[in-house]
Design goal:
Chains A, B: Belongs to the HIBADH-related family. Two copies of one chain form a homodimer. By secondary structure, chain A is of the alpha/beta class. Chain A has helices spanning 17-26, 41-44, 54-60, 71-79, 102-113, 127-133, 144-157, 169-197, 202-209, 217-228, 237-253, 259-273, 284-292; strands at residues 7-11, 30-34, 49-50, 63-66, 93-96, 118-121, 124-125, 136-141, 158-165. In chain A, strand 5, helix 5 and strand 6 form a beta-alpha-beta unit. The N and C termini of chain A lie far apart (58 Å).
Chain lengths: 299, 299
């Protein structure tokens, strides 16, 4: 490695956190870990120090990363009994890489800063494949100097690392991304479904549209999946539902109406009702197909 | 010109048809024209023959192009008193370049084919700018050999000329395009509006999103317009409303539910209610802003 080894705490070693922590260890950093579940075997067999709780991690590390499922899990890891906050001393940095509420993130950051520490929100996109391959996109909110301090750790885990703005803006960017993706999936779905229902070749229409204003990576990549009718594996609808819950929850607290996002979430719910919680999110088209008892590909 | 001059009829010389006919004349084709409105000066001063009605055009030309506002106008031009149908003789081709219903297009084609003639639907995108610059995208439905026969005329008027499929598929493709564009505009609108409302810099979020799955030409080009708050000039909302009317009307007759398209149409209606009929369609974001009394750009 080209940088000084860092003393990094890692809380949450699940399907995302496990491989991410593994990359940090292989990059030469000194790790202190805690997870509620089972410790992954490669971490157990590594140089990482297993701690009794999140407090123990915060007492030993200079940079404490959390990678847990949802907003309440972050609240618990940071501020619960024997949480990170109880072990911090001034000058340390808390980096939440979970995808959680941007609104509550700002409150978490204030409480951490009140302890004389710094806070970055740094959610990722790219899923478990990106975590394993160290190709995650990382969207960061916080102070530039704190971002620079943590950057070597980010670089061990991801590829596109962007400081979007101040505290909370990383989470906001991630939520905005998931809103745009969900609604663009609906755009491609309704366009291709219309084309097929009207008797055209959806694949040819998709190709014709890719040259013009309608073009998007989703029409290209996920539109192709819709036509080929492949929904597994992929980015699971259940995960996108969680992200849109964040979007709609945050929007409510911000007094913002997002009618398209709400509708997209309902279509994902319809997919789940059809047994599609594990489908790729392009499977949203199947909820629209079911509405009209018609599938793309039928003549 | 590299091809034989064609005897082309042109019916409808408005903001689109006028410049399109002008390109055909300059390409060396022999034109027979009829329009309900005033004959454009450059056409009047050209080699084109002005006919008394659509019948006169069809009697003289081998290829008869219609470029009129809406489905009833095409019906009238083709099958009304002294319409195209009354002047056709076997072997001629009718090419409807208007943007109209794909469902009724198939009926029009059947009636024309019953007269021993051929029919192409060939709607365009690119607007009046594309018409003036001969850079229209042309989406064609019909038989391949008929497409080849008319191709030299298309090439005088446009750049991206695609035979999408059989009769009606050109109109279907155009409608699908407008569905995808409208819903992708809503996708960019809701994502950027969320980002701004949550306190992030919408421009930075847009940039961060352009690298990933959320990327689209609309997020790029129209997202920029949303942030800069420029809604004129552009593709007028009133025209996109007409296209979504076609989409929803055709969808109804096809027993297809398009909930996102319906919602997008309502947002365009809200823009019109705000005086935005002539706004660029990226102005849809303003209907969403009005819903929540918040504008992108406010801190």
């Amino acid at each position: 490695m080209t940088t000084q080894p860092l003393k990094i705490g890692f809380i949450g070693l699940g399907i995302m956190g496990g491989p991410m922590a593994g990359h940090l260890i292989r990059a030469g950093h000194q790790l202190f870990v805690y997870t509620r579940g089972k410790l992954p075997e490669d971490i157990a067999n590594s140089s990482a120090t297993q701690c009794l709780n999140a407090r123990g991690v915060a007492e030993r590390a200079d940079i404490v990363i959390t990678m847990v499922p949802d907003t309440p899990d972050v609240a618990d890891a940071l501020f619960g009994d024997n949480g990170v906050a109880s072990g911090l001393t001034p000058g340390k940095v808390v980096v939440d890489m979970s995808s959680i509420s941007p609104v509550e993130t700002k409150q978490f950051a204030q409480r951490i800063e009140a302890l004389g520490c710094d806070y970055l929100d740094a959610p990722v996109s790219g899923g478990d494949v990106g975590a394993r391959n160290a190709t995650l996109s990382i969207m960061v909110g916080g102070k530039p100097e704190v971002f620079e301090r943590v950057k070597p750790a980010f670089e061990a885990m991801g590829k596109n690392i962007t400081l979007v703005g101040g505290t909370g803006d990383g989470q906001t960017c991630k939520v905005a991304n998931q809103i745009v993706v969900a609604l663009t999936i609906q755009a491609a779905s309704e366009g291709l479904l219309f084309a097929a229902r009207a008797g055209a070749d959806a694949a040819k229409v998709r190709e014709a549209l890719l040259g013009g204003l309608a073009t998007s990576r989703i029409l290209d990549v996920l539109g192709d999946r819709m036509i080929r009718r492949t929904v597994e594996p992929g980015f699971r609808i259940a995960l996108h539902q969680k992200d849109l819950n964040l979007a709609l929850g945050a929007a409510k607290s911000l007094n913002l109406a997002l009618p398209g996002t709400a509708q997209a979430q309902q279509l994902f719910s319809a997919c789940v009702a059809q047994g599609g919680a594990a489908w790729d999110h392009s499977g949203m088209v199947r909820a629209l197909e079911r509405l009209s008892s018609f599938e793309i590909g039928e003549p």
